[in-house]
């Protein structure tokens, strides 16, 4: 059993994995919960199955082991489950994806829409990788499957349920080049990607320790425990099970400070480090499938005005680029001023039908402070305060911490 050896998360302790920590520390809540989120309690079948005896290792050494992991070939099955306390996106995901929705020219097989489905519920993924230019990720459904295949310069998305195909070139025009291992860059969907997001955002407000050992997917692993030193965060801890041999993160678990089941958990149930078959990365559109080229999709969106609307929306968001960050580390809160200063309609103002006002009041908590008054909207991890004068404060912090941040800004 490895000792509970701790390490302060300075630059020496975290090594190359956290080289981006200064830029990322302010987005800890969003990186590990969203996802970005992106961002996944695992079913009981993934519970640790024993505590193997392994050589002692320090937290610094374990973080460096993750950074040095260079497994370029693997295949396996990943179970992903997300419980953020928000409704399941399901088929609605495409409506919120960039350019998505009816009449936008969006393809039902475009990855922006399909990968959003990982933001809620439980999913089974099959992954395969053979170097930086060949990856495959498949989301298995009930009688259907969505596959995202990167092979050289080509990125293919295929939804078997709708028999739709999306195709892009990975030369920057669309789709982007896939990140290391299993998914396109910017789409954290595997334990490694989630772990790197968390470690990249660590700073001196974070405690990193070795918390024993476990066995995941039949492999011996160390458990790296990442916790905020501050009070007020909705994130209780992040646990990463790290393969003792390769340094590859095998399982990622995010526990909310309020207790209950894990909010985000992703882990391998099977993993193999042998070279996958070349056929894993070949794709030919099935007969009769509707194929949408990324360039054509963009042109169609422009034709129907969706692109113009998106540009208009982006123009309105330009003011967000200078957003103010209050606090640091796990307690960082982003202050955003809504363009035009439009806040929630005041109760009894007549600006909103009574039934609609009651519905909004039921979703959020009315709060007051030195900043004035507003409404707090909650999930299990990320909370947001919208003030009546048109400002938004958002972070992975408690309601009290949001109010305090708004008072400080005032």
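Q: What amino acid sequence fits the structure above?
A:
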């Amino acid at each position: 059993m490895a000792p509970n050896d701790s390490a302060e998360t300075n630059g020496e302790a975290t090594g190359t994995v956290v080289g981006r920590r200064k830029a990322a520390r302010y987005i800890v809540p969003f990186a590990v919960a969203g996802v970005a989120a992106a961002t996944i309690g695992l079913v009981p079948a993934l519970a640790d199955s024993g505590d193997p005896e392994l050589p002692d290792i320090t937290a610094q050494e374990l973080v460096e082991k993750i950074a040095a992991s260079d497994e370029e070939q693997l295949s396996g099955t990943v179970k992903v489950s997300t419980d953020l306390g928000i409704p399941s996106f399901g088929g609605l995901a495409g409506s919120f994806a960039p350019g998505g929705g009816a009449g936008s020219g969006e393809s039902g097989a475009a990855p922006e829409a399909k990968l959003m489905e990982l933001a809620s519920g439980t999913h089974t993924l099959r992954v395969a990788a053979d170097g930086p230019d060949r990856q495959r990720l498949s989301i298995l459904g009930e009688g259907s499957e969505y596959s995202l295949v990167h092979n050289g310069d080509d990125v293919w998305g295929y939804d078997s349920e709708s028999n739709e195909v999306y195709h892009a070139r990975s030369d920057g025009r669309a789709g982007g080049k896939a990140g290391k291992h299993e998914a396109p860059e910017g789409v954290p969907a595997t334990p490694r990607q989630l772990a790197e997001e968390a470690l990249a955002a660590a700073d001196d407000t974070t405690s990193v320790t070795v918390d024993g050992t476990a066995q995941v997917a039949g492999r011996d692993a160390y458990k790296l425990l990442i916790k905020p030193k501050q009070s007020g965060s909705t994130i209780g801890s992040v646990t990463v099970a790290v393969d003792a041999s390769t340094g590859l993160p095998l399982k990622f678990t995010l526990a909310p400070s309020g207790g209950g089941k894990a909010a985000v958990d992703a882990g391998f149930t099977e993993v193999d480090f042998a070279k996958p078959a070349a056929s894993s990365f070949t794709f030919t559109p099935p007969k009769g499938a509707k194929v949408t080229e990324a360039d054509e999709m963009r042109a169609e969106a422009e034709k129907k005005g969706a692109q113009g609307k998106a540009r208009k929306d982006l123009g309105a968001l330009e003011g967000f680029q200078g957003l103010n960050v209050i606090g640091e580390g796990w307690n960082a809160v982003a202050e955003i001023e809504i363009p035009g200063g439009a806040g929630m309609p005041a109760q009894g103002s007549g600006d909103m039908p009574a039934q609609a006002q009651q519905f909004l009041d039921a979703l959020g908590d009315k709060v007051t402070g030195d900043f004035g008054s507003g409404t707090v909207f909650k999930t299990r991890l990320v909370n947001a305060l919208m003030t009546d004068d048109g400002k938004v404060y958002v972070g992975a912090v408690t309601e009290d911490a949001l109010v305090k941040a708004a008072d400080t800004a005032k």
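Q: And what stands out in the fold?
A: Residues 8-48, 89-104, 172-186, 307-321 have pLDDT under 50 and may be disordered.
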